[in-house]
């Protein structure tokens, strides 16, 4: 969707909310919700142009993007944005998965996996060091956010969360303590933390991967609340900045939609019952678990309608982010995306970005 002066009356009608009164302002506000990705070592001219147009809220990095020149590349992205007329005064979000163990995109710590940390004699101290190490590495590469720690409480040895040693423990108490220690240490050193995958992927078997196919976790509401969501209570009390929702379906909470597309889970459980007031972020929009929910744009719109603030276009294809952006813009115009709720989400993102390190 291209913005033109013919749309000005629509944008003016949105005032005095955070959806400001001009097409250019709204363009940047919609853009702040979309996290892009790119293939290879250098961002394309197309992505740079989108940054200049204010249509990019941040970047997620993968191993294929990492080289000795990564900090220069990131600095150039930030400088491109800073020179844009849409510059908000705050940096773009630059994030990756620097969990520890096998899941590390950047060379450096934390070296130990969550499982090793959770089994330590003093697991709180070990998790604190994990958060310190993560922040050190992320700042070295000019990243300002981390999609970690994982708060999944595994159930069976060798299941999905345990098999890759991404879970601290099969004890909610240990997971909550480790997660909170990680958060305190990393955010205390200036790097945004993200807890995932709400309400929990601890029930997924070894072969159940939401990146690849639909996954259903058929625990009771009581078990989900007392076991899987319990670590989030500690994380929220610790002041975690972001929560990533899972793409699994939890029939006890919502029989039809995965967590990241579910108003019942995001609004009623995460924000309502647990009281989370920070920024929500989706898992990968291109995930195989979402095959029943249309193309990239419609998926992003469903997530936004459910209450997800940041939409993760991590398919290393710039047109994916554009499709999500266009879907949001069209939905705001036709009223299928609630303007007040979207305005509140925009404000949460803006508040988060004001906290980001400026390298």
From TrEMBL:
GO biological process: carbohydrate metabolic process; peptidoglycan turnover
Listed name of the protein: Glycoside hydrolase, superfamily
The entry's keywords: Carbohydrate metabolism, Glycoprotein, Glycosidase, Hydrolase, Signal
Domain of life: Eukaryota
Domain Glycoside hydrolase family 3 N-terminal, residue spans: 42-352
Molecular-function annotations in GO: hydrolase activity, hydrolyzing O-glycosyl compounds
Signal sequence residues: 1-20
Similarity section: Belongs to the glycosyl hydrolase 3 family.
